[in-house]
Specification:
Distance between the termini: 44 Å
Helix content: 25-40%
Low-confidence stretches: 1-22
Oligomer: single chain
Shape: elongated
Number of domains: 2
Strand content: 15-25%
Order of helices and strands: HHHHEEEEHEEEHHHEEHEEEEHHEE
Largest sheet: 5 strands, antiparallel
Mean pLDDT: 89
Structural class: alpha+beta
Strand order of the largest sheet: 5-1-2-4-7
Number of strands: 15
């Protein structure tokens, strides 16, 4: 992973151009703050100093953000067999590295310093010389890992302006937040570095309230409101930038092996499920009657006896699947293909929903338990209705591909099970 280095406004613009989706919004929000400080800088030397410090903070936030996204996109290469998309735990002991072992319980978010050593960075400082801080959602942290991680994983943060106005849509799935803490405000007493590279003690939990201005907990399970600071530090001066789940998977989408990897997950699941069609006990445990069909969610890797090297990817993506079998064990299902046009008879089918439709009348959210249980949140055309009603007819693609246009890969992928 390449390390970014500060290089003034030209480099900052280049960094911003490489950001996508809500992440670009995050960087531009910081840019807006810098612009405001620049206007103030026309008035006095103190404002000019604040503007320069804000600029340095902005560059550091952009570098850290790019490094975290790169870490997630290359996680499987660093950790074979564990899947893609995970972010590192924060530095909890002021060492520059993620802790050995877990950082809190599963699904619990945590806040600490940015683990710059783990990311292969210098000890990034904000414009006032303080190391960056970093909060991560339990849904994407690498230890302990969530039960599943994919493009529908939830975020855990809601950013707000200093005035309390939301800075991102409620369903933005923001999974990590970076903080440039700025100068100490009234009531903050920052510990000396005691020989450590970053100012502060060896406990991020003890230092948290002295570096970040809002009353943030060191660990949390509920969604957490985070606040953008202002140039004059009233009521807070922390600058923030954030990373969404869509930012992480936007980077993964640009890997040449991403679509083949998803297609391999589909093929492995289809093969394992097809091998169990004659196992009546298995089918009874995992499927329920619906019209002429037996319909169910894809079982986990352990239930399908998948090898260890396939288990992580399977369990990360299995909530994107449904399967349907002919109740009378015949090849009663008509599976239609469009390229080329064809229909094949199947004893069963495995359906993969693809990326959610983000807008328009067919918008899919997949956030609440009720939405995640609704086939219409995953599948298109008549497929969700046929799953619910047990009609033995489905239509979809043979393989998972990413549209050249960059649009969501929302077309259903369906494998015949015989």
């Amino acid at each position: 992973m390449r390390q970014a280095h500060p290089g003034g406004r030209a480099q900052l613009r280049a960094l911003a151009v490489r950001q996508h989706g809500s992440g670009l919004v995050a960087v531009l929000l910081v840019a807006a703050l810098l612009g405001a400080a620049g206007l103030l800088a026309q008035g006095d030397l103190a404002a000019k100093a604040r503007a320069r410090a804000h600029g340095r903070s902005m560059i550091a936030l952009a570098q850290a953000r790019a490094a975290l996204i790169g870490y997630a996109a290359s996680y499987a290469e660093r950790h074979p067999g564990e899947g893609h998309g995970y972010l590192p735990c924060p530095d909890m002991a002021n060492t520059g590295s993620t802790p050995i072992g877990a950082c809190g319980a599963r699904e619990r978010g945590v806040i600490g310093r940015l683990p710059y050593r783990t990311l292969g960075l210098a000890d990034l400082r904000d414009g006032w010389g303080h190391c960056l801080w970093y909060a991560i959602a339990g849904s994407v942290k690498h230890n302990p890992k969530p039960l599943s991680l994919n493009w529908d994983s939830p975020g855990q943060f809601q950013p707000h302006s200093a005035a309390g106005e939301p800075l991102a849509a409620a369903d933005s799935r923001i999974a990590a937040v970076l903080f440039a803490p700025g100068v100490a405000l009234e009531g903050q007493s920052r510990p000396p570095s005691s020989g450590r590279r970053c100012p502060g003690s060896d406990s991020s939990a003890a230092d948290l309230a002295h570096f970040l201005d809002a009353d943030y907990p060191a660990a949390f399970t509920a969604p957490l409101d985070v606040f953008q600071g202002t140039a004059d530090g009233s009521p807070r001066n922390d600058l923030i930038a954030w990373i969404s789940v869509d930012d992480l998977f936007g980077a993964l989408r640009r890997r040449s092996d991403f679509a083949p990897r998803i297609d391999a997950v589909i093929a492995t699941a289809a093969g394992a499920l097809a091998a169990r069609l004659g196992d009546d006990d298995f089918i009874e445990r995992h499927a329920a009657p619906a019209g002429a069909l037996l319909v169910g969610e894809l079982p986990d890797a352990a239930a399908l006896d998948l090898p260890a090297e396939r288990a992580a990817d399977h369990d990360n993506w299995r909530n994107q699947f449904r399967f349907a079998l002919c109740a009378d064990a015949s090849a009663c299902i008509a599976l239609s293909r469009s390229d080329p046009p064809a229909t094949e008879p199947c004893r069963g089918v495995l359906l993969f929903g693809g990326e959610r439709v983000a807008g328009g009348p067919g918008r899919q959210a997949r956030i609440t338990p009720r939405e995640r249980a609704d086939p219409a949140q995953y599948f298109e055309g008549a497929n969700p209705t046929h799953l619910e009603s047990g009609i033995p007819a489905f239509a979809g693609a043979r393989t998972f591909t990413l549209p050249a246009s960059g649009q969501a890969a929302s077309e259903d992928v369906i494998r015949c099970l015989n």
